[in-house]
Amino acid sequence: MTGAPVVLPLTPQQRGVYFLHCLAPDSAVYNVPIVLRVRGGLDRERLQRAVDVLVTRHQALRLTVRESDGQVLQLIHPADAAPRVEVNWTSLPGADLTRAAAEVVRYAGRPFDVVSGPLMRVDVVELGGEEHAVSLCFHHLIIDEIAATALASELNRLYEDPAALPGTGPEHQYAEFCAGLLAEPDPKGLGFWRERLAGMPVLPLPEEHVPEDHGLFTGDRVGFTVPEAVSARVAEVSRAHRVSEFMVFHAALLVLLHRWTGAEDIAVGTPMSGRVDERFARTVGFFQNTVVLRGTVDPGQSFAALLKASRRTVLEGLQRQHVPFETVVDAVRPSRESTRNPLFQVALVFNRRKVEQDWSLPGLTVEPLPFPWPTSHFDLALTLLHEYGVLKGDFAYSAQRFSRATAERLTAVFLRLLGGLLADPDAPVGDIDLMDAEERARVRELSTASGRQVLDGRGRSLPLGFHGAVHTADPADGRPVPTGERGRFAADGRFELWRDPVEAALEAHPGVLAAVVVRVAEATNGSPDTTGERPGAGDGRPGATAGRSGTDTKPGATDGKPDPADGTSGAMNAASGARHGGGEQLVACVVPRPGVEPPAPRELSAHLQARVPAHLLPQRVVVRDEIPTGADGRPDPAALAAVPEPAEGTPEETADDAPRDAVERRLVELFEELLGVPGLGRYDNFFDYGGQSLLAVRLVARVAEELGRPLGVGVFMNNPTVAALARALAEDGDGTADPAGLVRLRTPAGDPSDVAVALIHPVGGTLMCYAPLVGLLPEHTEVVGLERVAGAHPDDTAYADLVDRYATTLADALPGRRIALLGWSLGGVLAHSIADRLTELGHDVALVALLDSLAQRTAEDAERMSATSAELLALAGSVLRDGTGVLGTTAGQRLLMRRFGVDLDLLRDTPADQAARMLEDWARLLGLVAECAPAKTTAPLQLFLCADNPAGYPEALAASWEGLGGALELCRVPGTHIEVLASPAVEQVAAAFTERTGRS
C-alpha cells in the first residue's frame, strides 16, 4: 500500500531558488543539465532501469513542491508513488553531432513543473549507428555538484547491473539532512556574517544597457583557455605563498574588478558544498551554500599581500559555510530588488575538474558534449576548471547588463592581468599593464585623433571598452586635464561618452528640457557634506546587477495604498537604499520645458519607474527653473541638498498624487474598477497592478464611451498612468486612435538605426503582445505598430483595401526609411502582404519576420479560416443573446481562444456588448484574410518556428512560406504558439531579428 509523502518546509537554500523560479518560471536558469556524447551502442532499456533505481534510492529525486497556507513545502513521495522519470528517446538518423546537441539542449531548456514533477529529465538523441547525445537535466532544487558526482558513480554501476546497489539508498537520507538545515542557525556564525558584511556597498559595475523588465536571467558566456605557462605559474605561486588555486583566482578577480570599476571594497559570491557533516557526503540533494567573500584592494598593494588577505578571507568563509545564505541576508538586511542579488553582483566558481568528466557507462565511450546555455544567474560570473589537465574558464554575463563585446574585452584583459600578477607578485597591483603594445598604440592613436584620453584613478590609459575619467590636453603644457565626464573608446574605435540612463529617461519626458543627476552625501550632524561627484565619476555610479536573490519583489507606494505585488516599500526608497548608505543619496534635478506646466516630482518618479531599472533610480527628484551650478560650472550638490523635500503624507505630497480635474478623477475610478484595486493615484501604472491586453481594451472602450474621446490602445500602452493618459487625451488630437491604426511605440532621442521596425497586430487587434519584444530591441531602433481596435478603424470591405491602407500609412509615417515588418500569428500573414504592397509603392523592405505564422496558400486553408470566422460570428450572436457565460463552454471554443492568446476569464468579465463587438471584429478580419491568396514579395523572410508545437506543425509552417519571398531563414525557438512572445523564446526572437536587421 502506498504511503503518504513526507512533507517538509523548503530549506533556506531551496527558498532562494524557489523564489527565483517563481520570478521567472519559464527560464531555464535553474535547470542543471549534464550533456554527454555517448558512443558504443547505448541500451535504452538498461538506461531506463538504472534511472528507475536511482529514483528509488534517492528521496530528492522524488520531490515536488507545493504552496499551502502561505508556506512553501517540499513533498518527498514514496518510491511507488513518485512521478516516473521516463527516458525520452528521439531518433535523428543522419543528423550531425551539432544538431543532436542542440536537440537535447532544447529538451533540457524546458521549464520544470515543480508542483507535478518529476524534477529530473533524461533525454537521448540517437544519431544512428552507435552515436548518441544524452542530457540528464535536474532542477536546482534537488541537486548540486556533489550530488551530481554521486549520481554519476551510481548510474555507472546500475547500468551494468540494476541490482548492484540496494533500493533503500544511502544510510543517511535527504530528509535527515533537511531537518538539520531547518534547525536554528549557529548564532556565532550568523554574528560573524552580520558584522563582516555590514555596510557593504554595491559594486559599481559599468552600465551598458537600460533594459525594461524583460529577459530576466538571459545571458551568455565567453570561454577561454589559460596559456600553459600562466597555468604553471598558478601552481608555482600557490605553493610559494601557501595558498590554494582558488585563492589565487579570487585575488586576481578582485584586482580585475578594481581596475574595471575603481571600487576598493568588493564582494564576490562563491558556492561552497555546505556539507560539513561527512555522513551526508554522498546524499543527493541541494545542500550547496553561497558564501560572500568581502575583500579590499589598494592599487599600491602587492599581489603577494593581496594573496595573504585572500587566504584569510576564504578560510573564514569555509569555517562558516554552514550558515545558510538566505539566513545571512535576513541578518544583514540589505535593501532588496528582484533584479539583483542583495549581497554581491559577481560570482567566482572553481572546479578541480569538469563535472561531466565524472559521468561514464561501462563498455561505452562517454565524454562531455559542449553546448550553449544562454542564461546567467549574476551580472558576471568567472568559472575556472581543469578539463583533462588543461586550465579553462569562462565569463558568464547577464545580457541585460553587458554586450558580448564587453565580455570578450574583459576576458582578454583578465588573461593579461593574470599573467602580469603571477609574473611579479611583489609589484603593485595597480601598475600591471592591461594592454599589449599593439592595443596601447591603438589607444594612443585614438586619443590623439579625438583630443581625449580615458584614464584610471592612477592616471593610466585604459583599454578599449573600459570606462574611465575623460581628460583633454592643457593648451599651455599638454598635461591631461579632467573634464568631469566619463567615457570610453569602443572596440571599433568610436569614442562614447557615458550617458546617465536616468538623465536620458527624464529628458525623454515631454515636459522636461534638461536633467542632471548628482550624488549628495549628508554628514551625520545633518548638514550637507557634498562630494560634487557626478554619477559615474570617481569610484563610479553603482551599476547594473543581475544576480537574483531576495524575497522583496515588486516596488509599491509608500502612502499606504495597495502594492501591485506584495506590499514592499517604495521603489525610489528601496533602490536608493541599495545604492547609498550613511545618508548619501542621489538627486535628479529637472528643468521643465518653457510654455508647459512643469511636471510634478511624483509624475517624474513614476515616469522613471517605468523606464529605468530600480537599482538606478534616484532617491529624490526636484524641479527647478535652472540647474544650480558652482564656480566651476558643474552642478552644485550643496544647492540641491538644501532643497526641502515634502514628508510622506503631507498635504503637498498627497495633493501631488491626487487627480487634478474631472477627467483624471474618472480615469482613476476606471483604473480602480477594472483592476479591482482601491486607492490608486495619478501616477500609478495600470500594468503594475495586474492590467493586461483585454483589460486595456475594456478601459479604452470605457474612456471612449464615458469621456467621449476615442483612444488608441497603443496610445494607452505608451501612457499607462492616469497623469500620462490624461495628458495624451489633451494633446495631439485628444489621444485618439489614428484612423489608420498607427502607434509610435519608440522614437529614439538620437539618430535612429538604419532600419525602422513595424509591428503588425495579430487577430486580437492590439499590440500588447509585443511589449516584451519592444523592450528587448536596441534603444536606437525606431518602432511603430499598426493596431485594429473594434470601433476605432475604418470598415474595410476587401483585404486589398486593408493592406493598401496599412502600407500607405507606414510609407507616410516612415518616409525614405528602410522598414522591417514583424507579425505574430495572423499578424505575420498581414506583414507579408503589407511588405508586397510597400515594395509596389517603391519602399525598401529590409525584412519580414513571421512569428509562428501559416501562409494561407490552398483552398483548404481558406475554408478553415472562413469556418473560424463563421464560428466567431455565431459566438458573438450567442454572447449578445445569452451573455458572456456562453464563452468557453465547449472544448472547441477553449482551443480557439488559446490559439488567439485570449484569457477566457477576462473575456467573460467583459460587458456582453463589448465582448460581442470584439468577436465580430476578429471574425471580419479573418474573413478578409480568407479572401486572398498570398502574393510573392521580393523581401527576405525570417520564419520563427515554435519547437514545442504539435509534431509536424513547424514543418508545415515552413513549407507554407516556400517561394513566397526572397531568402527564407528558419529560426527555431522554444515553447508553443502562444509562448513565442514570452521568455525564453522572446529573447531569442529579439536577438535573431536584431542580428538580421543589422546586416540587411
Description:
- There is one protein chain.
- By secondary structure, the chain is of the alpha/beta class.
- The model is unreliable at 210-214, 523-582, 648-654 and 733-737 (pLDDT under 50).
- Helix 2 packs across helix 4 (145-160), helix 8 packs across helix 11 (404-423) and helix 25 (859-882) runs antiparallel to helix 28 (912-931).
- Strands 22-24-23-25-26-27-28 form a seven-stranded mixed sheet, sandwiched between helices.
Query: Got a strand count?
Result: 28
- The overall average pLDDT, rounded, is 81
Major sheet: size, sense and barrel closure?
7 strands, mixed
The quaternary structure here is single chain
C-alpha Rg (nearest Å): 30 Å
Q: What is the overall silhouette? A: globular
Helix count from the secondary structure assignment: 30
Query: Numbering strands along the chain, what is their spatial order in the largest sheet?
Result: 22-24-23-25-26-27-28
Q: Extract low-pLDDT stretches.
A: 210-214, 523-582, 648-654, 733-737
Q: What structural class do you assign from the helix and strand content?
A: alpha/beta
As a percent range, the share of strand residues is 15-25%
